[in-house]
Structure formats: structure tokens, C-alpha cells
């Protein structure tokens, strides 16, 4: 069961990473090419319309996923994991409230929180892949080392990559919510 849940998280991370690459690539192509694709425009409009819902679901899944790994599986979060949680947990509640009151201004706060959370997740992943032992996170006693990989899926997906993917998705959604006013 544990393996299957980790596989599901890894699969959604992989799909999200593919979406990020394709969507950003198509967006850059669209920006510098005279031919406009309707598919990109339609996806763009749909994401703007459903911004609050998608952002809430993504942040909620990230929060529940991190709680699953620490509270159910017993993986002790390292210091960097705790810092990443600081930047994702509040977003779940902020997006929940924003969804109820239909406040799209939340995007700027999400972008800022996600930017700093993404920097920490990037650094954390770099520590894992570089096998740097000089940066020890386990000095606080009950914490794991920041270089410890609890699992590795598809050759690159670890817990910090999952967090980085969430932060990138929230940043992209946030920027696209600014482009044009959309009725809720």
C-alpha cells in the first residue's frame, strides 16, 4: 500500500512536470511566433477561470502528502522539509478562504510564498543529488538528514522534487491569473 501511494504521488509529479514543460514551451513559442494556437489560448483561459480551485487542490494535496509521509509513514522531516512546509501549508488555508469568497488577489501572496519555497526545495534536491554530507540537517535530534532519500521514482522524483513541482505549478497559475480579468 505504501509503495502504491508513493507511486501515485510520483506519477502525478511526473505528469505535472510534463505539463509544466509543455505549457511553458508552448507559451514561449506562442510569444515569439506569429501563428497563434487555439489550444494554448483555450488552456490559458480555462486555467484562469479555475485558478483558485486548481491552486487549492494542488496545495491541499501537497499538505496532505507531506502529512502522510511524516505522520502515517513515520518519515521524520528534515529542517529543509520543515521550511518547505512553512511555505505550502498556509497556502492551503488561504486558497480555501479565497475560493469561498472568490478573491483572486491571493495570487501575489502565493507567488511570493511559492518562490521562496521553491528555492528551498531546489536547494534540498541539490543536496540530495550531490550527496553533500557537509550540510547536516540532523543536528536537531529527531530530524532526518537533508540528504536522505526516502524514495526515488522515475530516476529523479524525490520528496523535494514533489515540493518543487507544487511550487512551480502555483507560480505559473498565479502569473496566469494576472493576465486578464476573468469572471468567477
How would you characterize the overall build of this protein?
The chain is an all-alpha fold. It has one domain (2-178): Bromodomain-like. Helix content is 72%, strand content 0%. It has 6 helices and no strands. The chain has helices at residues 2-32, 38-49, 51-72, 79-101, 106-130, 159-178.
Short description:
This protein is mostly helical and 184 residues long.
Short key terms for the protein model shown above:
single chain, 184 residues, mainly alpha, Bromodomain-like, 6 helices, 0% strand, globular
SS element count, helices? 6
Q: Tell me about the biggest sheet?
A: none
CATH fold-level label: Bromodomain-like
Number of E strands: 0
Rg, please? 17 Å
- Shape designation: globular
Low-confidence stretches: none
From N to C, what is the helix and strand string?
HHHHHH
Total domain modules: 1
What is the end-to-end distance?
39 Å
pLDDT averaged over residues:
81
CATH architecture: Up-down Bundle
CATH top level is Mainly Alpha
% residues in beta strands: under 5%
Instruction: Decide which structural class fits the backbone.
Output: mainly alpha
Helix content, binned percent? over 70%
Amino acid at each position: 500500500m505504501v509503495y502504491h501511494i508513493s507511486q501515485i504521488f510520483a506519477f502525478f509529479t511526473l505528469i505535472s512536470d510534463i505539463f509544466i514543460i509543455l505549457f511553458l514551451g508552448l507559451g514561449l513559442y506562442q510569444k515569439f511566433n506569429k501563428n497563434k494556437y487555439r489550444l494554448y489560448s483555450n488552456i490559458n483561459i480555462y486555467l484562469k477561470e479555475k485558478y483558485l480551485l486548481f491552486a487549492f487542490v494542488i496545495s491541499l494535496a501537497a499538505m496532505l502528502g507531506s502529512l502522510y509521509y511524516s505522520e502515517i509513514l513515520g518519515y521524520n522531516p528534515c529542517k529543509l522539509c520543515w521550511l518547505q512546509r512553512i511555505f505550502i501549508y498556509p497556502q492551503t488555508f488561504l486558497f480555501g478562504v479565497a475560493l469561498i469568497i472568490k478573491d483572486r488577489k491571493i495570487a501575489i501572496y502565493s507567488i511570493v510564498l511559492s518562490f521562496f519555497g521553491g528555492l528551498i526545495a531546489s536547494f534540498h534536491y541539490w543536496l540530495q543529488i550531490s550527496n553533500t554530507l557537509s550540510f547536516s540537517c540532523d543536528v536537531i535530534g529527531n530530524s532526518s538528514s537533508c540528504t536522505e532519500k526516502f524514495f526515488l521514482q522515475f530516476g529523479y522524483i524525490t520528496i523535494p522534487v514533489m515540493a518543487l513541482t507544487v511550487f512551480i505549478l502555483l507560480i505559473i497559475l498565479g502569473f496566469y491569473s494576472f493576465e486578464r480579468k476573468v469572471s468567477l
